[in-house]
Design goal:
heterodimer, A: 258 residues, alpha/beta, Rossmann fold, 2 domains, 4-stranded antiparallel sheet, 24% strand, B: 331 residues, mainly alpha, two-stranded antiparallel ribbon, 16 helices
């Protein structure tokens, strides 16, 4: 096992003393002989923002699927607050307060942008019809989609579809949001808006887990960084220390440090 | 913060609904002035409308493409026949027999709704055939021979014809009203979300099985009652006809030509199928060729059906189920 437990953060973050809101222990996910997750333990504290990096195929998105209940894991446990949710459905986990976005957006193409978020606000956010419309409208405003509310989703482009992923997740009024590469393809200006949005969510007390290849964006927001490779956690802790870790540089950046 | 809300029903749509209601009331008065032939023919039309609305609810809105809903058409007829044999008077037996289908559809829903799209379609067909075989084992049915609803023959023909017609009309009206109410509400948006991406819908907290089950059961009930009303006017119950794949072909035709996933599409599709049968019916098997040609032409040149053509021309689908966001106070 390649776990590097020595990489604890040297700088104390403010979320350090809060209890873990979402915690996975010894997660294994096998696909035939492939181990997409090979004994991953992961925890995030309430109000914390954690970044996840790693090369393609490291198991980052699989970890999100396991946390959000998209598929059953082979072994391991997932806890949310003080309850075990390993065998809870994705629907139940959404209603508990875990929201995920998809790396490749999966909008409901036959619905309008507003309806996409409305579904989330009614089902996951457990709102009545009017409350849901209000919540959906405010979420669309925050994600820059207000002008597209009544547009058919099939007619919007990739970037707006990525925004819609975030909007839909926020529509469920989550406590924890799992963001999967939502920054790819954005211009600097758009990236700035995205960082401001995520900072705002963090300031409201939302717990954030963000998979992202755009490191400078990630580093502006996160308290802690996890690097995964080949289905395992390679290193975790203070973002800068993780980035300087030799194993991380080999696996992720493909080069040895000078 | 500005209050936002879901827009009410647009004026055009309200006028359309009023027109449909007026048409419904006019049709309800038909037995007082229409000829026996017309009443008979329109009974068949109401059966078609119900079947098309149900299949569209299932396939167009929830993405559950079934080629086996004749299972419920045939089973409803069988239950009605059994009830009549055990002494229930025929008209209530038609409705109760249809409703009893829910007892079969509910446990089946646990099984088939776990399947993926193509598996579901095939499984429904297999189920329809399996249920037909079981029904044919009943000594009352005697295999291929079938059985007649003789009790209906004892009723005055005019009374029988008019009652069946009004039952058919009420069923079609109820099917349209119920599906409108459901689709305009939360269930409709959730069903469409499941149709487009069930996993993503589940990740947002949508109870995908519950939504699919509700729609599956409604469609089973609607098809069953349409089936018993059809049996009432045909009188003879033959398993091969009652469970025939023809029913699925008709439902598919009506919904695809009318406009899959549009509210009014099935109504137009039912009218078109009915008209084709009227026009080409005298040419025997030729009408089937006509139906086939129309279906192919639509598949090639108007894949979104008649409602798609209308929406393209007017820029908006009449009686669209879309929930529009407005600020409070706006029209």
């Amino acid at each position: 096992m390649m776990h590097d437990k020595g990489m604890t953060p040297s700088s104390q973050t403010r979320a350090d003393c809060a209890p873990a809101v979402l915690e996975a222990t010894g997660l294994v996910k096998r696909y035939g002989s492939l181990r997409a997750l090979d004994g991953v333990s992961f925890r995030v504290r309430r109000g914390e923002a954690v970044g996840i990096i790693g090369p393609n195929g490291a198991g980052k998105t699989t970890l999100f699927g396991a946390l959000a209940g998209s598929f059953p894991v082979s072994t391991g446990d997932v806890r949310f607050g003080d309850r075990t949710i390993t065998h809870e459905s994705a629907e139940a986990r959404s209603r508990l307060g875990i929201a995920r976005t998809y790396q490749v957006p999966r909008p409901f193409l036959g619905l309008t942008v507003f309806e996409n978020v409305l579904v989330a606000a009614q089902a996951g956010g457990r709102n009545g019809r009017d409350g849901a419309a209000d919540l959906a409208a405010s979420v669309l405003g925050r994600t820059g989609l207000a002008g597209l509310a009544n547009t058919p989703t099939a007619a919007i482009g990739l970037l707006d579809r990525k925004r819609l992923e975030v909007a839909r997740a926020l529509g469920t009024k989550p406590q924890v949001i799992l963001l999967d590469e939502i920054g790819g393809g954005l211009t600097e200006g758009e990236l700035h808006e995205l960082i401001a949005l995520i900072d705002g969510l963090k300031a409201e007390g939302m717990t954030i887990v963000w998979i992202e290849h755009i490191l400078h964006a990630l580093l502006k927001v996160i308290d802690r960084l996890v690097c995964m490779a080949e289905g395992q956690v390679l290193a975790e802790g203070d973002p800068r220390e993780v980035m300087e870790n030799a194993k991380v540089r080999r696996a992720y950046l493909g080069s040895d440090p000078e | 913060m500005t209050r936002h809300a879901i827009a009410g029903i647009p004026r055009v749509d309200r006028q359309l609904i009023a027109a449909l209601l007026a048409l419904f009331l006019g049709l309800a008065a038909l037995p007082f002035f229409g000829s026996a032939l017309i009443v008979d023919k329109l009974t068949l039309l109401t059966v078609y409308v119900t079947l098309a609305v149900m299949w569209n609810l299932l396939a167009g809105f929830a993405g559950l493409v079934s080629v086996g809903h004749q299972a419920f058409i045939g089973l409803g007829g069988y239950f009605a026949l059994r009830l009549v044999e055990s002494g229930v008077s025929p008209f209530p037996a038609l409705l109760v027999g249809g409703a009893l289908v829910l007892l079969a559809a509910w446990p089946l829903s646990w099984l088939v709704l776990r399947l993926r799209a193509a598996e579901f379609a095939v499984a429904m067909w297999v189920l329809a055939e399996a249920i037909r075989s079981m029904v044919m084992f009943d000594p009352l049915i005697q295999g291929e021979t079938g059985r007649s609803l003789v009790a209906l023959n004892a009723i005055d023909p005019d009374l029988r014809r008019n009652t069946l017609y009004l039952m058919g009309l009420a069923t079609a009206g109820a099917a349209m009203a119920l599906s409108y109410a459901l689709l305009r509400g939360r269930l409709g948006a959730e069903a469409r979300a499941i149709r487009d991406d069930a996993e993503a819908a589940a990740s947002l907290g949508v109870s995908t099985m519950r939504v699919k089950r509700i729609i599956f059961l409604i469609s089973a009930l609607g098809c069953a009652i349409a089936g018993t009303i059809w049996l009432g006017s045909a009188i003879t119950y033959q398993p091969r006809t009652a469970f025939g794949i023809n029913w699925s072909v008709f439902m598919l035709f009506m919904v695809l030509v009318g406009g899959l996933g549009s509210y009014l599409g099935p109504l137009l599709g039912a009218l078109l199928l009915f008209a084709l049968q009227e026009i080409f019916g005298d040419f025997g098997a030729w009408y089937l060729a006509g139906v086939g040609v129309v279906a192919i032409l639509f598949a090639l040149y108007a894949p979104r059906g008649i409602m798609g053509l209308i929406a393209d021309r007017t820029g908006r689908e009449p009686l669209s189920m879309q929930a529009r966001l407005t600020r409070q106070g706006e029209a």
